[in-house]
Amino acid sequence: LLYCDCGFAANAEVAHAHYELEEYLLPGAQRELTKIHTPGVATMDELADFLGIGKESTVKALAARDNTGRITVLLIPGNHELAPLKTEKILPSFEFLTDAEMETAGIVKGFLGPVGLPEDMRIVADASLQKLTSWLVGANEKDYHLAGAQPARDFEVDLWADIAEASAGDSCPVCALPLKGARGIEVGQVFQLGTKYSESMNATYMDVDGAEKHFLMGCYGWGITRCIAAIVEQSYDEQGIIWPLSVAPAEVVVIPLSAGDDAVSATAAELAEQLVAQGIEVALDDRDERAGVKFNDADLIGWPYQLIIGKRGLEAATVELKTRATGDKLSLPLSEAVNTLAELVKEQRKLFL
Asked: Are 36 and 145 in contact (CB under 8 A)?
């Protein structure tokens, strides 16, 4: 994701931004078309290193074939990547040419540029390149590049379009400050369908002017499992998940520490039933497992509260309450445990209403 403190935010794959570019000029600020010998220099990184410049002074060329079979050369700033989703709007179902296809088409991999291309090839350039009057591009000849290439004079651009992928550091399209970057999780989707499906189903309505028209359709949806993943990524520690109370599988887990002790097991089951009667969501860990296993699993699963009943505590008429988020432990009188815990949970619920 790309975002700015001014409020702008967008997916990097489709975001529009302003790119900081620089012209590469030969000594004396020459703008004539000049061939430069660049042996073995076939990438933007290699070209920038070879000439001792930044990639923002280079222009990258890519060759693709659209669904009609026509070859298009795509030109973008050398310090950016092509944005497939943006490009799809211009070249539906496009595919990059293979090495063999490039050779057959008469273009040279690693040294592709807009000058001297076959006439049947289309040129689409990122709109940001319009600010450059002198381009550093491939010469369509192995081991050579061209400096001083100029649109209209040395080649024709068939279409200027937004096809480069924005990145952190580019200028915000709203306020011009540098954009920030962050990773995110897509938990919901909204699609504008237009009339694509209403036309195929002939689903229509009568407009105010009496004309029959196809519905404009849209759809949206939440990804429940994606929401779970997002919550876990925001709420966990080295022991496991820390479920927020509002979405936890159960609000309290009751843990009897001596499964073979009838008194401990019976008390745990009774406390669980009383909590359920108070409207609390409860899990009862009555497995025949060691205490350490139950504690580890309770932390791993992430129940918000753990009500722990042990033999020694039962003899003293006390139980232990652990809060998963903080790790805090509290000894409660057995007779007050259910009401205290129920009130605590209900108070927490109010925070989400």
From this structure: yes
